[in-house]
Specification:
The protein is built from twelve helices and 13 strands. It is an alpha+beta fold. It has two domains: 178 residues, Protein Transport Mog1p, Chain A (3-Layer(aba) Sandwich), CATH 3.40.1000; 148 residues, no CATH class. Strand 9 and strand 10 form a beta hairpin. The chain is globular.
Amino acid sequence: MKYKIFLAFIFSIFSFAQEVKLNKKIKSDSDFLHLSGLVIPKNIDIFDRNTLITSSKNDSVISANYQDKNKENNLSIFLVPSVLNEFELLGAFKNENAREGFLLSETIVKPSQYKKGKFILQELSSDFDKNEQHININIIKAGRWILLTKLIIGKKENANNFVEFSKNFKDILRPENIVEKVPLSRLSNIHYSRASFRDSLMLQSTMSSATHKMKWIYENVNKYERAAGIPELYLDYHKAGLVGFIDYSLMKKPKTPKGTQLTYDYLNAIKKIKESGFLNEFLMSKYHNCLIGPKDYIFNFDGYEKWKSENKFDINMDDLYYVIVNSKKLIDLSKEEN
């Protein structure tokens, strides 16, 4: 129960969007320019737009639906304001797949980068068959917005005919324009959960973890990629945070405070995973293969599963002690440091 409110805050983005009633049709017989800067075309390849809907109470949320001429295949575009936290893409992706009745472990998941010009946006996609249909879900983190597209192919045996389309139609939408119009700054805030205050050792460890994550971003992500949001899909980003729980080298005046047994058990578990050499496998498994791993790294999941079966933990390693949230401060990228 103590994590309920905190978790609700983290994963609220699409539940918020779903609560907004889309009840206002937009009359448009041409390409539509949304206030975000996203152009929603009248036609995309073989698809014709048949509905364009927003909310009478919040016109920042918008949905567009397309069909092909035979009315066998459908394409949906959904744009919602971002809550700017470090887990929103992962959370939204998990929720959207769950709405279709699938766990991430039951789908083919592909984390990737959408690169256009100077900008790099992170995205997640999944493919699965549902009844006679094949469904492709794609979610892109685009600065102050989250862009969801869903392609439903009426006959799953035709899925291969849409492989190139599902890869390339985003080039027509050009989500990088959303980021360029109102980019995000490097500034962030850290929100600590109640659990992080259970003892002074847990608080110091939590602060150290967040500091390691921020340092990793500063050293590895340039301003054009950072403008699209916190780069939550990098495995090394989460690795920096996990190691930060037990590495106080970035703290100005690290102390040796006492902690409760629960805190000692948690930190000892992290040490044990680190010493095993399976940190990468642990994180990739924890996030259901939704992370972008280090270049040329070969995962040893068989070895990790064997090690895990021989090293049981009596503590929940999925607890969240903080969340990093991007600042809403307006910036001029030309004046920002790289």
